[in-house]
TrEMBL record:
<dbReference type="InterPro" id="IPR027819">
    <property type="entry name" value="C9orf72"/>
</dbReference>
<dbReference type="GO" id="GO:0006914">
    <property type="term" value="P:autophagy"/>
</dbReference>
<dbReference type="Pfam" id="PF15019">
    <property type="entry name" value="C9orf72-like"/>
</dbReference>
<dbReference type="GO" id="GO:0006897">
    <property type="term" value="P:endocytosis"/>
</dbReference>
<dbReference type="GO" id="GO:0005085">
    <property type="term" value="F:guanyl-nucleotide exchange factor activity"/>
</dbReference>
<protein>
    <submittedName>
        <fullName>Uncharacterized protein</fullName>
    </submittedName>
</protein>
<dbReference type="GO" id="GO:0005776">
    <property type="term" value="C:autophagosome"/>
</dbReference>
<dbReference type="GO" id="GO:0005768">
    <property type="term" value="C:endosome"/>
</dbReference>
């Protein structure tokens, strides 16, 4: 670089103003900056000065657009784009970004879905995600993953990002990364219905990407691209799932003769206990679809209808659908455990109703499964060694609340059954809200996070929930309205296991 000469008549303040204007007015010619400062000195002195900032002035009479700026290179390289594996109609792209201490946020790789985003939009996503990480001191690779949801209507996109820490190459220092999924703003309302599912699946992808980055950055992206395909395929099925309005004349609400009241009671009881998540299996697709239309009338939210599906072709199980039908005679534990919520499995061939453990126990089993799955991929094992001990439990009887509801339902004239069922489901929701308010009052009074057994027993007596089936049925509804109430009342299994270990060690 040539030596920079500053005219002697210019003081330090003028030099500072020149520096600021030279940095901020990249599109403005040096002559324009000189005029804005009231300087009119011509000759090689100013040429040498501007050359110090990276501007090459060969002739002052040339137009300003010919002045070249030798600034930093672009932060989005041309060779980082690839096609998102799988066929998607709603994911615009998925991208990985990294914070660079010199140049700031950088886009490391982009998987284009329905469209190819421009460099400005990609950098907007990266900046919104990573610029807030500038002052973060936590660089531990085991630090928790932080999720962020952004709306950028000015560019027409919304996106969910997950910020995590990983080494940038083998034996390299840790850096802050983000994995983002970008969706068009016009799909915003539909996306919100599936946000929790997308977040859960993306967290699994982040764990896989972290493991790959620790090994080798050069191969991590290629391996991760293969792991994206099942994510895209399953999320595409969930996004486009929806049930049409049911034909009420074909449901068991109007014609229960093909099923016994005892069987219907067991199905509805287990369906509400497992938060409205049920899988119908059998050999007759039409019979399965009719049962799905009947069962969806007991769901408390219309969003659950948009996350339900009739039998598909080919018939496969899709995790996290509220109600779905699968033409098969059996379904594996490894498939069911992938869902975020407990599930009910109804076999229309054998009339057997099974369900997974309650919500607080199911969460522990699912975490163990996901951890084992991640370890098996890290060790390049062909199969996940995880095995659940009695994941399914047979439901033998229905809840008294459901028996009473169905008895009154079938006692009504046919044309009154649908409105009566709607009001009955609302009454169950109100009873669940009453349970929530009671628990909140006890929590505030006792200043604890988990109620004692005597307090829970008192609540059940006051609300006439003596039967376990009624209690867990209302808990299944209340958990959807007030997340966390399940652990408050039923307890945290992990905490009980810890207490057992403490008591065991103290006994020696």
């Amino acid at each position: 670089m040539d030596q920079i000469f500053v005219p002697e008549q210019q003081n330090t303040q003028t030099q500072h103003r020149l520096l600021l204007l030279g940095e901020r007015q990249g599109k403005k010619s040096p002559e324009g900056v000189e005029k804005s400062l009231g300087l009119n000195d011509s000759g090689s002195t100013w040429s040498n000065f501007w050359r110090g900032f990276g501007w090459n002035i060969a002739d002052k009479n040339k137009p300003s657009h010919n002045i070249t700026h030798n600034g930093p290179s672009k932060r989005v390289a041309r060779n980082i784009f690839s096609v998102l594996p799988g066929d998607t109609q709603w994911i615009s792209c998925i991208l990985v970004s990294r914070w660079d201490n010199i140049s700031g946020p950088r886009v490391e790789h982009v998987w284009s879905g329905t469209e190819t985003l421009g460099e400005d939009n990609l950098m907007s996503v990266s900046r919104q995600t990573l610029c807030g990480e500038l002052a973060r001191e936590d660089t531990d690779e085991n630090a928790s993953v932080e999720s962020k949801f952004h709306l950028l209507p000015e560019i027409g996109y919304c996106f969910t990002s997950f910020v995590f820490t990983a080494p940038y190459g083998q034996n390299a220092a840790s850096s802050r990364f983000s994995l983002s999924i970008v969706v068009r703003m016009k799909l915003y309302q539909k996306y919100l219905m599936l946000h929790n599912i997308v977040e859960d699946r993306m967290l699994q992808l982040v764990s896989q990407l972290q493991t790959l980055l620790v090994k080798d950055w050069s191969t991590a992206i290629n391996v991760f691209s293969v792991q994206l395909q099942p994510f895209v395929t399953k999320m595409e099925d969930v996004f486009h799932s929806s049930l049409p309005p049911p034909l009420l004349s074909r449901t068991f609400v109007h014609h229960p003769s093909q099923y016994t009241p005892e069987f219907i009671s067991r199905v509805v009881t287990s369906h509400l206990q497992t938060h409205g998540s049920t899988i119908i299996i059998g050999s007759d697709p039409e019979r399965i679809n009719t049962f799905i239309d009947s069962l969806c009338m007991f769901n408390i939210s219309w969003n659950e209808r948009h996350r339900s599906s009739h039998c598909r072709s080919p018939s496969t199980f899709i995790p996290d659908l509220a109600i779905q039908g699968v033409v098969t005679t059996t379904i594996s534990e490894e498939e069911v455990i992938q869902s975020m919520l407990p599930s009910t499995v109804v076999d229309l061939n054998t009339f057997i109703v099974k369900q997974t453990p309650p919500f607080h126990e199911y969460n522990i089993l699912r975490k163990n499964y996901l951890r084992s799955q991640l370890d098996s991929r890290d060790k390049s094992l062909q199969e996940n060694p995880w095995k659940a001990q009695e994941l399914f439990r047979v439901v033998k009887t229905g809840a008294p609340l459901v028996d009473k509801l169905l008895g009154e339902l079938y006692g009504c004239p046919t044309y009154l059954r649908t409105p009566f069922l709607v009001q009955s489901v609302k009454l169950l929701v109100r009873k669940a809200i009453q349970l929530i308010r009671y628990v909140q009052a006890e929590i505030e009074r006792s200043h604890v996070r988990q109620l004692e057994a005597n307090t829970v027993k008192k609540i059940r007596v006051h609300m006439d929930l003596g039967q376990e089936s009624d209690f867990y049925l209302l808990l299944g509804i209340a958990e959807k309205l007030f997340p966390g109430i399940y652990v408050m009342l039923a307890g945290d299994p992990a905490f009980f296991i810890e207490l057992q270990f403490i008591e065991l060690f103290e006994s020696f």
